[in-house]
Write a structure and sequence with these properties.
single chain; 214 residues; alpha+beta; RNA Polymerase Alpha Subunit, Chain A, domain 2; six-stranded mixed barrel; 4 helices; 13 strands; 40% strand
């Protein structure tokens, strides 16, 4: 079973753009908790504490509200970021029952060094997370994807993978990772580097011959 991460929050009474601006200036951000059968609850979340939770990579959270004895189980439903600074502006928590199915993005953990890299290829990563459906109490910490057998001009798509206990919602034809052939620029750079080494070797030999003559 997925282990929930603890997050302390406080109920928020303030509304309006100016009040939210003032709230953010104190190191907190506005949030909201909602569940199917409950009225939405406006919240205030300490940004530093939130970042600690996000760094764990866990998706299931135990939300501790200041006036409740027991935590509420929730998942991150939506996180809004500033378009320029990338700071978190607002967050939506979706209350869940551990046995209900939810759709949630889970990060990919790539395993192995592709054979194609040793062949001179370039690794192109197109997806870092997959949208999956599973029980809220069984959300995986991450999804392991083995890319060690990929050669140049080979790729891996969502439809090539099967994970135990989860249903992948991301379209099957979505490209996850591919090994591209070396570009013309990289080949020319490598050739120039080899030629440079050759010239350096010739210059060194010339200097050695001159010292012998002296």
């Amino acid at each position: 079973m997925t282990e929930a991460v603890k997050l302390n929050v406080t109920r928020r009474e303030e509304r309006g753009k100016e009040k939210m601006k003032k709230l953010r200036s104190t190191g907190n951000i506005p949030a909201i908790f909602y569940m199917h059968t409950e009225k939405p609850i406006p919240l205030s979340v300490n940004l530093r504490e939130l970042h600690k939770v996000l760094k764990t990579g866990e998706r299931l959270i135990d939300i501790y509200m200041d006036d409740l004895k027991r935590p509420k189980k929730a998942i991150f439903k939506e996180i809004q970021y500033h378009p320029v600074t990338d700071e978190i502006l607002h967050i939506d928590f979706q209350g869940v029952d551990l046995q209900e199915e939810v759709e949630i993005e889970v990060r990919i953990n790539f395993k192995g060094a592709p054979i194609g890299l040793k062949e001179g290829g370039l690794l192109d990563t197109h997806l870092y997370e997959l949208l999956v459906k599973c029980k809220a109490g069984e959300i995986p910490h991450e999804l392991y994807v083995d890319i060690s057998n990929l050669h140049i001009n080979e790729s891996l798509r969502v439809g090539d993978l099967v994970f135990e206990g989860v249903e992948v919602v991301t379209p099957a034809d979505s490209l996850i990772v591919s090994i591209a052939p070396p570009t013309k620029v990289s080949l020319e750079e490598e050739k120039a580097e080899l030629e440079g080494e050759g010239l350096e070797g010739e210059e060194q030999e010339g200097k050695e011959e001159e010292s012998k003559e002296e």
